[in-house]
């Protein structure tokens, strides 16, 4: 291949990569190919960093009862659905905290936990939500997670264990998207720092291992002797 042709190919690839980096979340494959399904079938990166938005417990409509156990199913289900809509994928403990604060209850006891778990199971059976381990959300929230800045989350919420693996995949993906060839630890540190977690502790490294392995498995990233690069699937916006 001639030097000119090689240079032209590189310029085209660089331009495409820049469009991928700078395009908004609406620049998915479905925008270019309307025949594609609107809901992705596997994890898809999003590209807009947004502040974490938390539900206002006072707006959940759970006040006015003597006990959490006095709440009927309908208002409790509505409150659960609202928290998930705004904060999903949301960790069970974060969801429970919003509900208890809304109902002016101080402690998550065994009976209250069981009640919430029962309602989650029922809503999942109805197709209203999806549970993945300790996380609850909508299908699309798991497959196309929001890239959130957790600095704006309530102090009690802002814990790395409360961030779903799909969102941590975004941290690593964007770190490598901005700096290919970064060492694994550097990419982890950059990704976490960008969403408001300042220190890359040993626990944080361990927490990020599973999201990293998922990115490598899906060929979104590749590892070349401890340095991370974009993989063959990284530039496919809608999958």
Put the structure in a nutshell.
With 239 residues, this protein is mostly helical. Helix content is 47%, strand content 10%.
> If you compute it from the alpha carbons, what radius of gyration comes out, rounded to the nearest whole angstrom?
21 Å
How would you describe the shape? elongated
- In sequence order, what are the helices and strands, one letter per element? HHEHEHHEEHEHEHHEE
Total helices: the number is 9
Enumerate the spans where pLDDT stays under 50 for 5 or more consecutive residues: 1-13, 29-37
- Helix content class: 40-55%
In whole angstroms, the N-to-C terminal distance is 31 Å
Largest sheet: 3 strands, antiparallel
From the helix content, strand content and strand pairing, which structural class follows? mainly alpha
* Physical arrangement of strands within the biggest beta sheet: 2-4-3
Q: Per DSSP, what share of the residues sits in E-state strands of 2 or more residues?
A: 5-15%
Overall pLDDT: 88
The number of strands is 8
List the domain count as a whole number: 2
Commentary on this structure:
With 239 residues, this protein is mainly alpha-helical. The chain folds into 2 domains: 135 residues, no CATH class; 88 residues. The chain has 9 helices and 8 strands. It is elongated and about 60 Å long.
List keywords for this structure.
three-stranded antiparallel sheet, single chain, mainly alpha, 47% helix, elongated, 239 residues, 9 helices
Itemize the secondary structure elements and their pairings:
Layout: H1 3-22, H2 29-32, E1 49-51, H3 73-87, E2 90-91, H4 92-102, H5 110-125, E3 130-132, E4 135-137, H6 139-143, E5 147-149, H7 165-178, E6 182-183, H8 184-194, H9 202-217, E7 221-224, E8 227-230
Parallel strand pairs: 1-5
Antiparallel strand pairs: 2-4, 3-4, 6-8, 7-8
Helix pairs in contact: 3-5, 7-8, 7-9
């Amino acid at each position: 291949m001639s030097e000119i042709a090689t240079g032209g190919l590189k310029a085209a690839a660089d331009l495409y990569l820049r469009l991928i980096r700078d395009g908004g979340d609406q620049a998915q494959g479905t925008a270019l190919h309307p025949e594609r399904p609107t809901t992705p079938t596997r994890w898809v990166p999003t590209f807009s960093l947004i502040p974490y938005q938390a539900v206002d417990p006072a707006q959940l409509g759970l006040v006015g009862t003597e006990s959490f156990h006095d709440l009927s199913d309908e208002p409790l289900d509505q409150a659960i659905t609202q928290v998930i809509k705004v904060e999903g994928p949301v960790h069970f403990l974060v969801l429970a905290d919003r509900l208890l604060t809304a109902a002016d209850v101080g402690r998550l006891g065994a009976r209250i936990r069981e009640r919430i778990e029962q309602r989650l199971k029922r809503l999942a059976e109805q197709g209203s939500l999806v549970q993945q381990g300790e996380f609850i959300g909508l299908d699309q929230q798991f497959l196309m997670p929001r890239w959130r800045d957790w600095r704006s989350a309530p102090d009690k919420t802002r814990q790395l264990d409360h961030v779903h693996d799909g969102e941590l995949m975004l941290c690593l993906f964007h770190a490598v998207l901005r700096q290919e060839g970064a060492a694994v630890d550097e990419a982890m540190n950059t990704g976490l720092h960008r969403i408001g977690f300042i220190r890359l502790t040993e626990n944080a490294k361990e927490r990020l291992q599973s999201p990293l392995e998922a990115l490598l498995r899906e060929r979104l990233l590749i590892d070349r002797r401890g340095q991370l690069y974009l993989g063959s699937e990284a530039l496919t916006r809608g999958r």
